[in-house]
Design brief:
This protein is an alpha/beta fold and about 400 residues long. It contains 14 helices and twelve strands. The strands form three sheets. Strands 2-8-7-6-5-3-4 form a seven-stranded mixed sheet, sandwiched between helices. Strands 9-12-11 form a three-stranded antiparallel sheet. α9 links the parallel β5 and β6. The mean pLDDT is about 95.
């Protein structure tokens, strides 16, 4: 290719200029080390419930290996509509208001690509899951982050949104319970946000993948509030509460016109979600309460321990109310979050994620996932104590 432009210059500019995931980039280093205790990756340490695994094997033996409807099995969509009605107080038609996707990540991508025209702005709160900004850019939208703060419990307020909204704002994107902070939004908080969305005539995308994992109060979905169902795409899935990350199964619920637009993209890219994963999801929905309760109780026990451990270590940390992450401040040690995490990894072989992976306002924080055994958490806290004692 003498005399021709470099291959880098031929790559789509939006893709070329987006950095790699701050989580995956950091854990490339972790994979090269031995005896590391990881509080980094947000994946349940539980196995998928046995009856879900067994049903998947049985489905495979019966030859469930073919395409499904682009929307997903109607039987599954009916089960999802029943579950969402019961758990989230929102009613959807399984025929045309539910779309089964390859994880919630695909559902988010479909929603943004279906809604955004070039230059449309998307309000979203930071710190946030690492893919949000990139996914907005891939859809030719303009990301507009709204900084949340530890002193507010990392909650989002109407005043924060009013300070960032413009005439070009089209979509408000939410994620509560939150990754990486463990923050939740109470009903009163959400009512203010809902009023803002209605008055500004915004579309809402709500990612509630951690909805079942709350510890001190029941979850409230914004889609259950007056006037929100008609303007909201509700995203949920099976990875977290059912420990089904490898099944890659999510779903979206919303007004038929929006689901139809998402389905058009889905049918030309993914075609359909895995037939085996869809059968597994049907089995998971057959008895959700018993499967989830055991995991939630164990996460609560770990949450209580790690929150107390940070307090004993003198680390300021908002008590996580949902998901399975703690987000302690390490700012007082005078190191950038990435340097703090790297030094801890090298000296004590404990892996945490620098807060900057979740947005610029994550500087001074690290994310600790307690989706690992209590034994690992206790050992990680002992190693962290040794590390901090040398920095006094």
């Amino acid at each position: 290719m003498n005399g021709s432009p470099s291959l880098r210059n031929r790559i789509n500019a939006a893709v070329r200029d987006i950095p790699r995931s701050g989580i995956r980039d950091f854990f490339d280093i972790v994979t090269q080390m031995k005896d590391v205790i990881s509080l980094g990756i947000g994946e349940p340490d539980f196995d998928t419930p046995w009856h879900v695994r067994e049903s998947t094997v049985f489905a495979l033996e019966r030859g469930v290996t073919h395409y499904t409807s682009n929307l997903g099995y109607l039987e599954l969509r009916r089960a999802l509509a029943r579950y969402v009605h019961k758990a989230f107080e929102a009613e959807y038609s399984p025929e045309d208001e539910v779309l089964v996707t390859v994880g919630v990540s695909e559902a988010l991508d479909l929603a943004l690509r279906a809604l955004l025209n070039p230059g449309d702005e998307v309000l979203y709160h930071e710190p946030c899951y690492v893919s949000y900004r990139a996914t907005i850019l891939f859809a030719h939208g303009v990301p507009v982050p709204v900084e949340t703060r530890a002193q507010d419990g990392f909650r989002l307020t109407r005043a924060m949104l009013e300070a960032r909204v413009t005439p070009r704002t089209k979509v408000l994107m939410l994620n509560f319970p939150n990754n990486p902070t463990g923050a939740v939004m109470g009903r009163a908080d959400l009512e203010d946000i809902a009023a803002f969305a209605r008055e500004r005539d915004l579309l809402v995308i709500t990612d509630e993948i951690y909805a079942e994992l709350t510890y001190d109060a029941p979850h409230t979905s914004i889609v259950s509030l007056p006037g929100l169902r008609e303007r909201t795409i509700f995203l949920h899935g099976f990875s977290k509460a059912w420990a089904m990350t490898g099944f890659r199964l999510g779903y979206a619920c919303g007004p038929a016109e929006l689901i139809e637009a998402m389905m058009k993209i889905h049918q030309y890219t993914m075609l359909c979600a895995s037939s085996l994963s869809q059968k597994a999801a049907l089995e998971a929905l057959a008895r959700p309460e018993s499967d989830i309760a055991e995991m939630v109780n164990e996460y609560r026990r770990r949450r209580n321990f790690i929150a107390a451990a940070f307090a004993d270590l003198g680390l300021e940390c908002q008590r996580p109310l949902g998901a399975f992450y703690a987000f302690p401040s390490v700012a007082k040690f005078g190191l950038p979050a990435k340097d703090f995490a790297l030094e801890l990894l090298r000296q004590e072989k404990v892996a945490l994620v620098p807060g900057t992976a979740f947005g610029d306002c994550g500087e001074g924080f690290v994310r600790c996932a307690y989706a690992t055994s209590m034994e690992n958490i206790k050992e990680a806290m002992a190693r962290l104590q040794r590390f901090l004692s040398r920095r006094k």
